[in-house]
C-alpha cells in the first residue's frame, strides 16, 4: 500500500467523466503525475483531499478514506493549489503563520516553523512584504511554504511550475527535491510537462482522460540503452575519424552533433574506444552511458506527447 491508493476510481460530472476506473498507487518519495490539461490531475487531488466525493470506486490516503475521514486526512496533508489564491494585502509571514495555526500548531511553534520554512523556500528577506507585490515565482514559494509549514506526511502540489520562467522552474523543482529527499515528506506533484520532472521525481504516473496509462519508477523508464556517447578533444573532424575507425572494426557508431554514439555489445568495445583515441593522439573528454529521457520513452512507445 502506498501513501495514496485508488481502486476503480470514477468521477462523473453531468457532461464529462473526469476519472474513469482509475486504479493507481502513489508510493513514498516523490511521485510525478503527468497528463495534458484536462487529464484529471486536479480532480484526483481534490478526491484525495476529500473535497470531492467520487461517483465510483475506492480511495485511501495514509490508510484512511477521505470520503468519510476528510478532516483527519487533511490534517496530515499539505496542499499547494494551481491558481493564485493568496491574499494580496497580507505578508507571507502572517499568512504562513495563520495557516500553521489553522493546522493545529500552537502560536509559538507556528511562528518558529514559519520562520524556518520561509527561509527554506527563499523568502526570508521578503517575508514581511504584502504578497500582492510578489512576483509569480515568489507567490509560488509562499504557496509551497504554507503547504509544508505543519510538517505533513504527504504534500500535494498542483502544477507548481505553472507560469514560471526557466530559472524559476529549476529553483522550484530543486525545492521539491529537497522536500522529498531531505525533509522526508512524500510528495505528489502534477504537471503537464513530462520532461521537467524526470530529474526530480522517483516515480512517474501518466494519466489521460481520467485513465491510467503508465506507472513506473523513473529509473526504470529512463533505463540505459547499452550505448555510450564518446566526445574527443582534437582538431575538427576528430570525432568522425574515431567513428570511421570503429566502423572499420565492425562496431556500430554514428555521429550525434560533435560526438559519437557507439553501440556496446561487448565490454571489450570500451577498451577499443580508449585505444583508438590514444592512437590518434586525441583527448577523451567523455565516455558516458546513454539514457532515454522521459519524452523519448513515450515517443518510442507511442505514449502520450505531454
Automatic annotation (TrEMBL):
Alphabetic keyword roster: ATP-binding, Nucleotide-binding, Transport
Record-linked CDD domains: ABC_DR_subfamily_A
Example GO molecular function: ATP hydrolysis activity
A Pfam family assignment: ABC_tran
SMART domains membership: AAA
InterPro entries: AAA+_ATPase (IPR003593), ABC_transporter-like_ATP-bd (IPR003439), P-loop_NTPase (IPR027417)
Annotated ABC transporter domain residues: 4-234
Similarity annotation: Belongs to the ABC transporter superfamily.
PANTHER family per UniProt: ABC TRANSPORTER, ATP-BINDING PROTEIN
Full protein name: ABC-2 type transport system ATP-binding protein
Organism (species): Flexivirga oryzae
Amino acid at each position: 500500500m502506498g501513501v495514496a491508493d485508488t481502486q476503480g476510481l470514477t468521477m462523473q460530472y453531468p457532461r464529462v467523466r473526469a476519472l474513469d476506473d482509475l486504479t493507481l498507487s502513489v508510493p513514498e518519495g516523490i511521485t510525478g503525475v503527468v497528463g495534458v490539461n484536462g487529464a484529471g490531475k486536479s480532480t484526483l487531488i481534490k478526491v484525495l483531499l476529500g473535497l470531492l466525493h467520487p461517483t465510483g470506486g475506492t480511495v485511501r490516503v495514509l490508510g484512511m478514506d477521505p470520503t468519510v475521514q476528510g478532516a483527519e486526512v487533511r490534517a496530515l496533508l499539505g496542499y499547494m493549489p494551481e491558481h493564485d489564491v493568496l491574499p494580496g494585502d497580507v505578508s507571507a509571514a502572517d499568512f504562513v503563520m495563520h495557516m500553521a495555526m489553522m493546522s493545529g500548531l500552537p502560536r509559538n511553534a507556528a511562528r518558529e516553523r514559519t520562520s524556518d520554512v520561509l527561509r527554506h523556500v527563499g523568502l526570508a528577506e521578503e517575508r514581511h512584504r504584502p504578497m500582492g507585490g510578489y512576483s509569480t515565482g515568489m507567490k509560488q514559494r509562499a504557496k509551497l511554504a504554507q503547504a509544508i509549514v505543519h510538517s505533513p506526511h504527504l504534500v500535494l502540489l498542483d502544477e507548481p511550475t505553472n507560469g514560471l520562467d526557466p530559472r524559476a522552474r529549476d529553483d522550484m523543482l530543486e525545492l521539491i527535491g529537497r522536500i522529498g529527499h531531505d525533509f522526508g515528506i512524500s510528495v505528489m506533484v502534477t504537471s503537464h510537462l513530462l520532461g521537467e520532472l524526470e530529474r526530480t521525481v522517483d516515480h512517474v504516473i501518466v494519466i489521460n482522460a481520467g485513465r491510467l496509462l503508465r506507472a513506473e519508477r523513473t529509473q526504470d523508464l529512463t533505463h540505459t540503452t547499452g550505448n555510450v556517447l564518446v566526445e574527443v578533444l582534437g582538431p575538427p573532424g576528430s570525432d568522425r575519424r574515431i567513428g570511421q575507425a570503429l566502423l572499420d572494426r565492425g562496431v556500430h557508431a554514428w555521429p550525434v552533433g560533435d560526438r559519437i554514439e557507439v553501440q556496446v555489445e561487448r565490454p571489450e568495445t570500451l577498451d577499443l574506444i580508449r585505444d583508438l583515441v590514444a592512437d590518434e593522439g586525441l583527448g577523451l573528454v567523455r565516455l558516458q552511458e546513454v539514457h532515454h529521457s522521459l519524452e523519448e520513452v513515450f515517443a518510442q512507445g507511442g505514449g502520450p506527447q505531454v
